[in-house]
Amino acid sequence: MFEQCKTVMASVGVDKVIQFVSDSGPDAAKCRRMLMNEYPHIIGAPCVAHSLDLLIEDILKVPFFDSVDKRAVGVVNYTRNHDILRSALLDCQGRTLLHPVATRFAASVTMIERLYDSRQSLLTIYNGDVGDTFRGHLQKREHRESFDEIRATVNSTDFWRDLRYVLRVVLPIWHILRIADGHRSYEMNAHIYFSLHELDMYYVTDEDIREEHRSELQRLMMARWSFLESPAHDVGFLLNPLHFALKPWSNDTVMQGFNLLNERWGNSDVLSEFEYYCSGAWRTDMASDRTINEYLEKIKTPMGLYQFLESKLSANNQASSNPNPNQPSSSQSTNSPSSSQSTNSSQSSNSSQSTNSPSSSQSTSFNLTDTTPAAAHSGLVHTHTLRGFWRLFGAKIPNIQALAIKTYSQPVSQSPVEQLFSTYDYLMGSKRNKLAFETQEKLLFIKSNYKVCNKRV
Hints:
This protein is mostly helical. It folds into four domains: 1-46; 48-185, no CATH class; 224-323 and 337-412, no CATH class; 415-456. The chain has helices at 2-12, 26-38, 48-60, 63-80, 83-93, 107-117, 119-127, 129-136, 141-154, 157-180, 192-205, 211-228, 231-238, 252-265, 268-279, 281-286, 289-298, 305-313, 317-321, 339-354, 375-378, 386-393, 398-408, 415-427, 437-456; strands at residues 19-22, 43-46. A two-stranded parallel ribbon has the order 1-2. The longest helix has 24 residues, at 157-180. It is globular and about 80 Å long.
C-alpha cells in the first residue's frame, strides 16, 4: 500500500499532497505512519466517519445494548420475511422496516430509528385482524410460538423504552458521523474537536444516561477519540472564530496539535503572529465588531448535539413516558431534556450553534433523514464560510491566515473512496468479470464523475 501511494503521489506531484486519510485497519494505519516519516509535510488522519461507526459498534457490543439490538433485529427480520406483515406495514405507514446493511455506516442506528418510528403501526398490525389472521394460518406449533414471541416483544413497554434509550445514547454519534460523511461535509476540521468534546460532556452530565452505563460509555468514547484525533482537528478548533471566546489556546492538547501541524504546514512566522492572534486585536484592526459578528452569524455550522437531541426527543415526551401508544399517558414531561443538559448546552455551544437551534416541536418522530442539519446540505454553495472569514479578516496575520485556510480545505473522511468500492462492485459482478483493467477504470471514472456533475447541476 505504501509503494502504491508513493506511485500515485509522484504522478500528481508530491508537493501537492499534504494529508493522507484512511480507515482504521492496521495496514492503513501503518501506511499513514510511513508516509509521515517519508514526507515531512504530510500528516496522517484516521477517517472520522469510519472511527465513529466503530464507536457505535463498540457501544452495541455492551451486553445491555447488544440484547436490545438483537431483539430489534428479531422484530425487523420477522416482519420483513413474511409478506403479509410486510405488506400490511407498507399499507399502514407507506414504508417498511429497514434491514441493517453491513456496508453502510451506522446501519443499526437507522434500523432501530425506523423500528421505533413504526411502533404504532406494528402494534396495530400484530394486535389486529392482520396478526390474528396470519397466526391462524400457521400450521406448526413452533411457528405459532415464534409469532407469539415477536408479538410479546412488540407489546412490551420495556422494549420500546429500551429502544428509545439506545437511540438517546447513539444518536449524538450518528449526528456527527452524518455531517462528516459524504461529499457535502465542509470545513469539518473546525467542528470535530468541539463536537467530540460535547459528546463526552453529554455522557458525563446527561441525567437520562443510566449510571451503570456512564463509565463504560465514557471509556469507549475516549478510546476512539484518542485514536481518531488529528492535529488538523486541533488547529481547526483553535483557529475557529466561533470558539474564540473559549480560549482554546489554553488547552495543552490543542497546542500540541498546533505545534505539530505548524512544523509540517506552517513556518516560524506563524509562532510570531500567534500572540497577536490570541489577543484578538487583529479582528478589531481589520473591521468593526459588528461587521465580524454579522459575518459569523451567517456561517452555516453543524447543529449542536444538545439542540439536535432536543429536536429529536422533546417532541416525543408522550412516547417516552408511555412507549405503548395503546395506553393513555398521564404525563408528558418525565423524559424531556434535563435542565442541566440545556444549561451545559448554553455554556458550551456559543453563538455558533444558537443560530441554528431548532424548535423543540419541529418533529414528532425519530426520522433521521428528515432532520439532517442544514449545514450538511448547503455547505458547498453557501458563501459565508470559515475560509471566507479568514480571507476577509485575516490579512493582519497572513501566516496564520494561510494555515487556517489550508486546514479548513482538508477532508475528514474517506467516504468518497468507500462509495467508489460500492460502484466498482456494481460494475464488476459475477456475470461481468472479464473486463480489461483499463475498461474498468474508465467505466468507474465515468460513473463516479457523472454523479458529481449531476450534483453540481
